[in-house]
Specification:
4-stranded antiparallel β-sheet; about 120 residues; mainly beta; 7-stranded mixed β-sheet; globular; 11 strands
Length: about 120
């Protein structure tokens, strides 16, 4: 019932910024975790950021180092990932994901059962 659609990917130079958007449809309960993951071909999907709706707590992958921020506009049914100071190693397909009726966010992609189609981010030097 819940569907996610990502947008906002593109090509930027090192040090640039992008804001990814994830439009949600269907009923997302207040105990959901909303998250962003990324994947490079041939490698496993890795957690980028998570937001637990019940208390607004956010979490990030260690590689983020303060460069990214996840946020939500509940009224607009949108989840965002603001990415600043992008690096070539950030190049990947970025996915938004949701896990309903959760107690907290989890960085493992295997526990999420709702996914968007992905949006490509390419960072050049």
């Amino acid at each position: 019932q819940v569907q996610l659609v990502e947008s906002g990917g593109g090509s930027v130079q090192t040090g640039g910024s992008l804001r990814l958007s994830c439009e949600t449809s269907g009923d997302v309960d207040r105990n959901s975790c909303l998250a962003w993951f990324r994947q490079v071909p041939g490698k496993e999907r890795e957690g980028v950021a998570g937001l637990y709706m019940a208390n607004g707590r956010t979490s990030y992958g260690a590689f983020v180092k303060g460069r990214f921020r996840i946020s939500q506009d509940i009224a607009a049914n949108m989840v965002y990932l603001q990415m600043d100071n992008l690096k070539p190693e950030d190049t990947a397909i970025y996915y938004c994901a949701a896990r309903l009726q959760s107690g907290s966010c989890d960085p493992r992609p295997s526990v999420y059962n709702i996914w968007g189609q992905g949006t490509q981010v390419t960072v050049s030097s």
